[in-house]
Write a structure and sequence with these properties.
By secondary structure, this protein is α/β, with parallel strands linked by helices. The N and C termini lie far apart (59 Å). It is globular and about 80 Å long.
Amino acid sequence: MRSIFLAAAIAALPLTALATTPTKDTSAWWGHIKVLASNAYEGRLTGSPGYFKAAHYVADQFKAAGLQPGGDQGTYFQSVKYLEEQVDAAHSSVALVGGGKTTPLAVGPDLTLGARDAQPASLAAAPLVFLGYGLHLPEAGYDDFKGQDLKGKVVVVLGGGPDSLSAALKSHASSTEFPKALEASGALGVIRVQNPKAMDIPWPRIIALSSQPGMRLAEPALQTYHRPMFAASVNPEKAQALFARSGHSFAELLALADAHKPLPRFALNQAVTAKVVTHTRAISSPNVVGVLPGTDPTLKAQYVVISAHLDHLGVGEPIKGDRVYHGAMDNAAGVAAMIETAKGLHAQSLTKAGHKLRRSIVFVAIAGEEKGLLGSKAFAEHPTVPKAAIVADINMDEFLPLFPLKHLLVLGEGESTLGDAARQVAAQRGYDTLPDPAPDRNIFVRSDQYSFIKTGVPSIALKVEGLPGSAEAQMDKDWNTYRYHSPQDDLTQPVDLQSADDFDAYLLALLTHVADADARPVWHKTSFFKRFAKSPAAVGN
């Protein structure tokens, strides 16, 4: 069934969507991608032989760039332990029960079962409740959990949020506040429904990716949930079945969500039963860490982190005959930019002027990002440098140099003086910065900078962006639709090498600016995220 759905999806793609233009090998940046995204690295799945091979490649590059080992016991590797959870879809089942009727939901075509944040739970007729967007932000005047008795029930939530809340705040609420509130409420689990307008990829590709194992950190204190939970995502085309006995329609709720209006909350007047079969094993997969010590007698004790995730999705369901999910742009590109920045700093220090940075820099190639920002959470909570001395994180993830660099998306731009610095350096190089064009995709919390934000560190993520409605914006959208998390994120795709080199030069200039500034980055007083700061020194006046 999975293969039938995939074949139909690929057949429906426009011919231009997967057109390939082999990129000429004319840059050192592209040279790293040719290695990391090759078949030999088998998609770099966390814990796999391909990932370990990639980790050693990055460590060798860090050493060549003059970085000191920043991992465990004098190595470049920080060991991180995981629990891998594989759903046995063939032996699992889900059904809706109500009004004397049982409606099976097919695992795959109708819904996928989650195994990422907790050990999956089976269910015996748990009542269903629609909880709107599932946002828990009482201090911001919005709380879908308020007044709801959820003990022993399963909640259904729709992606999005009201326009009275910022994109960053909605993203934070859905990823961090939601699981804490859900577990505290006594609920048994969650069924998520994505707004079709905010979906990154079509449902057939979601089915293919659901064959991937889920993971969570082995350390209990770092786990999202602390008891088994049921988790599923429903195909939006099948979502009406959830609302069939409620007196509401999925279409009316989508209309409210599309208008960014508050959603009602109500009982769905039916229950869900589930048998979820999984297989668990313990694995280990390292972050790769290199350090460039600063030279200022005082400021060298402060650390600026530059991060990019090294892992991708490994080997999975074939698309167009390819089973390797290469992850060229996601995120060999970010790792390559980090390596070239390290080499640029090394070369900069060897010039006649001999410029050396005042603050220390930590370069981290991260595991487990595709499994829920796990490797970055492990590093941010247990860094290999003094935790209180980390003053900033600059993260690259899928920065997409598909067209000339004229505009930048700086996620977190308005939250701290680090964002101000990113905008200032961009302006100096003739670029401007643009707001998030698709806030309901929650990309602010979907990459590794968010792990540092939650430990109180001012952080940003960077991406080449196109103006809304432009041909460049359409290229970005097409890439997400047809290449994101598919084998077609490979070495044959068209990439603008000059744009990538310009981005790398911007990154080097920004990192130099932040490392040499008299003042450390601080949160703006108006930022919601200043609450995570561990010291008054991390918040501006």
